[in-house]
Amino acid sequence: MPVLTNIGFLATCKEEGGQGEIHPIKNAAVAWEDDTISWVGREADLPSQYYNEDVFDADGKMVVPGLVDCHTHLAFGGWRPDEFAMRVQGKSYLDIANAGGGILSTVKETRRATEDELYKKASGFLKEMAELGVTTVECKSGYGLSVEDELKTLRVYKRLAEDQPMHIVPTFLGAHTIPPEYKDDRQAYIDLVIEDMIPEVAERELAEFCDIFTEESAFNIEESRRILTAAKAAGLTPKLHADQLTSCGGAELAAEVGAASADHLEKISDEGIAAMAKAGVVGVTLPLASLYTQEDPLNCRKLVDRGVEVAVATDFNPGSAPSYDLPLAMMLTCNQGRLSPTEVLKGTTIYAAKAIKRERKVGSIEKGKSADFAIIDAPDPDFWMYHYKGAQCLRSFRKGRKLF
Ligand SMILES: N=CN[C@@H](CCC(=O)O)C(=O)O
Ligand SMILES: [Zn+2]
Question: Which residues bind Fe(3+) (predicted)?
């Protein structure tokens, strides 16, 4: 039975205790059988049966649960560096979208790409994410926006889940924006999402969640409510891109429909915070997106102090967040979101797992959970996020096997 010993600081990240309580154990060991954790505690208490030849040495470093990136748009065609250059010179994300760029330019490239091309590109990203300590990735569609191209993207995620050494959680995002061929008949596109896409996705079991971009410039509250209600009836759990650019009631809707999470939230209202806290909707902060769109970052402190559990993710996509560096998003959440490093760590482990309904399987180091961990070259979370640098993950395990 494999065992990881000589752990200087083990952040177990059990769920109870609130945002900042990571339940650490010093001088710890973790053992597992097959893909499941079987023992966690102080190394001095390790039962003798675990002293065998299958021993990994953490060299006195910190060990954390395999990180969970609970919001990405992993599979897409092309890139948009030209828009980045325009934004830093003063053009807004919305101006660029209104001029036909933004999401729609990636839709064009994604439709053009074959399933194999998308698969190959996305699997390259996953390899590099693994090197950062990430072991679970939520992946959205949303750059196909036709039945065929949405299914193509979701099939890529299905293949990645089967072939890649990473937990993959697929989300359908057909309501990302209105595609060009429906620009004069948005109602017809909404009907297509509800009557064709959602039933196909649900029947083929290609996604567990249905996300939507709720924004006046994308889908308004009434449209979002209709789509998410239909998705829920088909067995998909709602998620929302909410209150990113304007305060339009997205967080309140997330609470109303029982969403697993509401993400972005830079412009959330006080009523929205209260509604999410009451309904137990996880708030997902995406600091890379605020940074790259030159928007004010979300004040996560306000959410946590009012009882919302906050997760942290990259939002990796070719437009608003072209980086999958989750530790970078963590450091930004400390500096700009005003959370402490331990609060942030909880946000990329057990709370991130909650945002994708995987909290029973991943996100903490506890008996019965998937044996997913990362060895980090730091003595504790404070030092890790304070002395941010590349290559801090020394090794990672997923389902008890070396991932990186
Ligand atoms: N806000 C909507 N969707 C993405 C951006 C997608 C894109 O710009 O391509 C986001 O989460 O930021
Ligand atoms: Zn997103």
Answer: 71, 73, 241, 315
Query: Which residue in the block uniquely carries the two structure tokens 């750059």?
Result: 143
**Atom number of ligand 1 nearest to Cα 244:** 1
User: What CA–CA distances, in Å, run from 34 to 41, 183, 369, 372?
Assistant: 19, 52, 11, 12
Q: What Rg, from alpha-carbon coordinates, does the chain have?
A: 21
Task: Determine the residue of 320, 323, 324 to mutate for testing ligand 1's pocket, defined as the one with the most ligand atoms within 8 A of the Cβ atom.
Answer: 320
Ligand 1, atom 4: closest residue by C-alpha = 320
Are 16 and 68 in contact by the 8 Å Cβ rule? The answer is no
Share of the chain above pLDDT 70, in %: 100
Q: Is 244 part of any known ligand binding site? A: yes
pTM above 0.95, yes or no: yes
3-state secondary structure of 315: coil
> In the structure encoding, which two tokens stand for residue 259, read together?
């969403």
- The ipTM of this complex is 0.98
- The pLDDT tens digits of the residues spanning 56-111 come to 999 999 999 999 999 999 999 999 999 999 999 999 998 999 888 999 999 999 99
Query: Average pLDDT in the 226-236 region?
Result: 98
Domains and CATH numbers, the chain: 2-65+364-402 (2.30.40.10), 67-355 (3.20.20.140)
Report pLDDT for 99.
Answer: 86
What is the reported pLDDT for 52? Answer: 79
Q: Residue 105: what pLDDT? A: 96
Q: Under a CB-based contact definition with an 8 Å cutoff, are residues 285 and 337 in contact?
A: yes
The predicted structure's pLDDT at residue 293: 94
Contacts of residue 270, defined as CB under 8 A and 6 or more positions apart, other chains included, come to none
* Cβ–ligand 1 contact at 287 (below 6 Å): no
Ligand nearest to the CA of 71: 2
74, 239, 241, 267, best to mutate for ligand 1 pocket (most atoms within 8 Å of CB): 241
177 close to ligand 1 (CB < 6 Angstrom): no
